[in-house]
Amino acid sequence: MRIHFIAIGGSIMHSLAIVMHDQGHKVSGSDDEIYEPSRSRLQQKGLLPASTGWDPERLNEGIDVVVLGMHARSNNPELIRAKELGIKIQSFPEFIYDISKSKTRVVVAGSHGKTTTSGMIAHVLDKTGIPADRMIGATIGSLEPVKISDAGIIILEGDEYLSSPDDSRPKFLHYHPQVTVITGIAWDHMNVFPTYQSYIEPFRQLITSLGTTDILIYCTDDADLVKLVAEISPPCELLPYSVHPYVIENGIVSLKSENQKEHPLKVFGLHNMQNISASFFVARKLGLADQDFYEGISSFEGASKRLQLLHKGTNLTSYLDFAHAPSKVKATVHAVREKHPNDYIIACLELHTFSSLNPDFLPQYKDALKKADEKIVYYSPHTLEIKQLPDLSSDQLADYFNAKDLKVTTTAVQIEEIINHLEVRAGTVLLWMSSGRFDGLDLKVVAEQLEGSDSK
User: Fold this and answer.
1) How many Å is the Cα radius of gyration of the chain?
2) What backbone phi and psi angles, to 5 degrees, belong to 454?
3) What is the CATH code of the structural domain delimited by 2-92?
4) CATH placement of domain 100-297
5) Helices 270-285 and 114-127, interaxial angle, to 10°?
6) 26-30 and 2-6 as β-strands: parallel, antiparallel, unpaired?
7) Are 345 and 336 in contact (CB under 8 A)?
8) Which residues lie closer than 8 Å to 454 by C-beta, 6 or more apart?
9) What is residue 453's predicted lDDT score, i.e. its pLDDT?
10) What pLDDT does residue 425 have?
11) Which of 77, 100, 114, 273 is the most buried (most CB within 10 A)?
């Protein structure tokens, strides 16, 4: 099969392109900008476009399908050319469904925890030797984000966002899952969902689509989600879940199984105990014995950039987390405080998305950094210009976060200056939260410099 990927540089798109190439399909692609690690990975496989940008001459009648990524626009010249030629055009969720119709499809949806929960399920299945494909938004230990084989199961991270510039349906509606997890609902993507009610609608559609032979596993700690499920009353099997029982002793987090046996973990945080509970129910439904689940989950170290340990020194510990939406930021700061109850926590958050920089949405961040000792917020004025949003002041942000002691910075140099003037004591934690890049700042180097000669 000949496949052309428009916007091949995306994290999922480039991984899917590589998998298709490795299976023997003829793959081509295009993009107007490709960053690392996508660039190097595509180059290693001979899939890196010879030039950046869009060229309709790349399209011809010999191509079987065009996979259209969200980064492209509806007036993309390659997309227009594909339509003129009558080539089959699919969003990547449509494409994934087409190649997984015969499989048991497990979809993990929700505003937060999708990647981690999907990763937990994939990790446990891998550790217990159960073949399963996956499409997850991050690397999980040694597991690549995308795997497509002849396995009878596929784990899919289900996004509520639009499928493509040509298809406004939520991505997860294309998958038609037999097993669905919803981790919770918290308003996000304000550029697409201008109100909370409009944001809830895709989840309403997902729940409504479930039939009598399907399974819905949903978090009862989210009152709005519970209300939505009760209101729709789908005919599927309902499995509510909450936080998995756990204990913390000497900084070690352990799950407690029904027989009260303790199982040490490598991850922490209340939100992860919820994610584990969801994964546990999925594993049961896939036929996994409880003991096998606990043995498998004990070695799970987290998804890339999800409370990822960047540095561990004598006095300083540093983490990186993908948290950017208010609910994610609150959960991450809470998790670090629970793990380090008596430590000095420096939290640095980058506001990078359209929602996080929008004055109409920013009040959602109230008290998001409350549990941190030092609160730093970084944003780029250039990003505001690109997104055509008004400038922000330090006073405004302090009000939005309900934090008079909030430190606001607009350059990487200022971030370093603020952090380097802070006192590093025994038991200091430096927490970075962003879906962006902190203006290219080397976060490991900052932690090592802050640690000083005690760095390890």
Assistant:
1) 22
2) -85, 0
3) 3.40.50.720
4) 3.40.1190.10
5) 50
6) parallel
7) yes
8) 313, 314, 315, 316
9) 39
10) 87
11) 114
What CA dihedral angle connects 127, 132, 137 and 138, to 10 degrees?
30
Kindly report the backbone phi and psi dihedral angles of residue 239, in degrees, each rounded to the nearest multiple of 5, phi listed first.
-125, 95
Name the token pair of 362. Answer: 């920013």
Which pLDDT tens digit goes with each residue over 397-427?
Answer: 999 999 999 999 999 999 999 999 888 889 9
pLDDT at 454: 45
- Work out the number of other CB atoms within 10 angstroms of the CB of residue 74: 10
Encoded amino acid at 270, one letter? L
With CA atoms as reference, report the closest residue to 218 among 184, 177, 246, 170. Answer: 184
196 in Cβ contact with 187 (< 8 Å): yes
Which residue, chain included where needed, has tokens 């991505």?
A: 171
Enumerate the domain spans of the chain: 2-92, 100-297, 308-454
* Tokens at 373, concatenated: 């000792």
Which tokens sit at 163? 């499928």
Q: How many residues does the chain have?
A: 456
Rounded Cα distance between 318 and 375, Å, is: 15
pLDDT at 456: 38
Backbone angles phi, psi at 227, to 5 degrees: -65, -40
Confirm if 6 and 76 have CB atoms less than 8 A apart: yes
What are the tokens at 194? 């201008």
* Three-class secondary structure assignment of 160-182: CCEEECCEEEEHHHHCCCCEEEE
Alpha helices in 46-113 (DSSP H): 77-85, 92-98
Q: Model confidence over 256-307: pLDDT tens digits? A: 998 889 999 999 999 999 999 999 999 999 999 999 999 999 999 999 899 9
- Which CATH number is associated with domain 308-454? 3.90.190.20
Question: What gap in Å lies between CA 340 and CA 338, rounded to an integer?
Answer: 6
The amino acid sitting at 448 is E
**Residue numbers of the chain with a pLDDT score lower than 70:** 453-456
CA 199 to chain centre: 17
Do 304 and 138 touch, CB atoms closer than 8 A? Answer: yes
C-alpha distances (whole Å) from 227 to each of 13, 111, 179, 232, 327 are 35, 16, 20, 9, 19
pLDDT at 135: 97
Q: What are the structure tokens assigned to 33, written together?
A: 């900008």
Beta strands, E only, 76-223? 88-91, 104-109, 133-135, 146-147, 153-157, 162-164, 167-170, 179-182, 215-219
